[in-house]
Write a structure and sequence with these properties.
312 residues; alpha+beta; BirA Bifunctional Protein, domain 2; 7-stranded mixed β-sheet; 11 helices; 14 strands; 41% helix; binds zinc ion
Length: 312
């Protein structure tokens, strides 16, 4: 049994490395020398933009308020969100140089000597955005209108997890719809997108399954948080084959945060109760990689319905 599990893990790792090699060899992505950080070809971007448009068309009935934020977040907002408690291992912080000319000279000497020049850099008020919906919650602090609000956001996100799995990038784009309001409206929204997300992925030829999932909480306390998240079915993932059919990859996640962000950021419903929130996040790079895996690197030979849906 243990051997079978180990063999299967080795097979999955090998399949992931093999797919990465194919993507690089076919010029779909290019290496930067850092695991999980790639340049993307025009073809990759056309497919990704096609799916991004499809997300817009599929959510047209939501009449979402559209916001686009830069890939950095106010450090104080990350501190309020509990992210430091739950996911310290995924955070990226932004540092900057504030020294004088002497410090600059010292830093260049350190660079020349091959020693650690980064100690001349100090933290700024910024961290890298961990998920596309994070900049929204501080923005909507205060009392919501009676019907709550619904948003459409997209952002580059960062998670510090270098990997040779092409689907586990350190920097990637998330497109999300986010609902903020009463518990009923938020659960309804989550259920709607759990179904709609599956229909969407199926319609572009991806073999999708919905599974109950948990976030990668840190440490021993994290294991308990993860178990409770699964028990309450707060997070669903729509998983598809990317590098391997054996280990599927989360392409979309539907998250019900209950009143976590409502309490943290002082977002209240019309009746004064803490707002509930949920988001559905499309992993645009992962979906694009899944599409290339399913249909090949020549988009001209993709099924006509898929090409039409993606405008290719
Ligand atoms: Zn989100």
């Amino acid at each position: 049994m243990i051997d079978t599990v180990a063999d299967s893990a080795t097979n999955v790792d090998a399949a992931r490395r093999e797919y990465l090699k194919e993507l690089l060899a076919n010029g779909i992505i290019t290496s930067t020398g850092v695991s999980g950080v790639y340049g993307k070809s025009g073809l990759f971007e056309r497919v990704l933009a096609g799916f991004d448009r499809f997300v817009t068309e599929s959510g047209i009935d939501q009449r979402a308020e559209v916001f686009r934020f830069p890939p950095v977040l106010n450090r104080a907002d990350l501190e309020k969100s509990d992210y430091l408690k739950s996911f310290p291992h995924l955070i990226g912080t932004v540092h900057g140089f504030r020294g004088n000319e002497r410090d600059h000279g010292d830093m260049l000497n350190m660079l020349e000597a091959g020693s650690d020049w980064t100690r001349h850099f100090h933290h700024t008020d910024l961290v890298l955005t961990p998920a596309a919906c994070y900049p929204l919650y501080p923005m909507v602090a205060g009392k919501l209108p009676a019907k709550g609000r619904l948003f459409d956001v997209q952002s580059y996100c960062f998670r510090y997890e270098p990997s040779d799995d092409p689907a586990r990038m350190q920097v990637f784009r998330q497109r999300e719809y986010v609902r903020v309001g009463s518990p009923e409206s938020v659960r309804q929204f989550r259920d709607l997108w759990l179904e709609r997300g599956q229909v969407m992925l199926r319609s572009v030829g991806l073999d999708v399954q919905a599974v109950v999932a948990n976030d990668p909480f840190f440490g021993r306390g994290g294991a308990m948080l993860a178990a409770s998240q699964v028990e309450q079915a707060l997070k669903f993932e729509l998983v598809v084959p990317v590098a391997s059919r054996e280990a599927l990859t989360a392409a979309v996640s539907c998250n019900y945060h209950q009143d976590h962000f409502g309490v943290a950021f002082g977002i209240t419903n019309d009746d004064g109760s803490a707002a509930h929130t949920a988001c559905v996040g499309f992993g645009l790079e992962r979906i694009t990689l899944g599409l290339f895996k399913a249909h090949g690197f020549e988009t001209k030979s993709w099924p006509a319905t898929v090409r039409t849906t993606l405008g290719l």
